[in-house]
């Protein structure tokens, strides 16, 4: 039975040919994109690879995330020739943040056989608070509620992973932060039940670019001619949510410039909650302290692309025509 096969590893690299499914969790960022190229370069059969994208805003109107991200990830999936499965918590970030004596919302996830729904219910709680800027996921609730928990639900909820070997791949790098440096390169995934008698599934978690520096990541994108997400071209060095709670002064100044209505909605929530996103300063103060990224002023085409919901451009080009985006090697706001 395949689930009983042991994982053979060379160093921290699992035996990639031993897996039935290779599930790459991606938000379209450079590190997950580099993971995809690494899998292909190592000879993993694309027929076994699938992209999973957790939509932070829950398929509703953009609130925290870049409006174009869903379309960008879909264009990547087409370019790679692999399926894309989207998953989200109903109501996304905003509903979770506004929970008041209410249970967390159910999760929906796409599967090869249609849309499924799981979870919801559970204890009633009140948030009425932005996630805290901490590596502790119990207070930085967005990562747990909108990404990690959603990804886990989509694997645990699908019988196609039972009795099979699945490799979950994510793109965290040690260089990003002290917390990420402590992550294991290879470990059982949180959905692993290989030793259970009920619903056993073998699920490993691999971080293939954990030891890579940023230059190696950009080299991979250039070598394959992959256009990076427009957030990088605007000046962001990491593809987090557009309005990530870890945003720098320059990022908040840029958001206020390019998406003033959204900025004001977030600022109004800070007023309503009586607690700012970042403990020390409101986003209005942060924006006053920062200067917008130059590309946000000089490239209205990029701003429109990033704030739109479609992607109609080539995503792959010639490596010789590839250029490093403005945000490369910039401030590392957003890393935990
Ligand atoms: S990118 Fe920022 S706001 Fe979005 S889920 Fe991660 S920590 Fe939360």
TrEMBL record:
SUPFAM superfamilies associated with the record: Adenine nucleotide alpha hydrolases-like (SSF52402)
GO MF terms, alphabetically ordered: catalytic activity
Residues in Phosphoadenosine phosphosulphate reductase domain copies: 165-244
InterPro entries: PAPS_reduct_dom (IPR002500), Rossmann-like_a/b/a_fold (IPR014729), Sulfate_adenylyltrnsfr_sub2 (IPR050128)
One Pfam assignment: PAPS_reduct
Protein name as annotated: Phosphoadenosine phosphosulfate reductase family protein
Source organism (scientific name): Muricoccus roseus
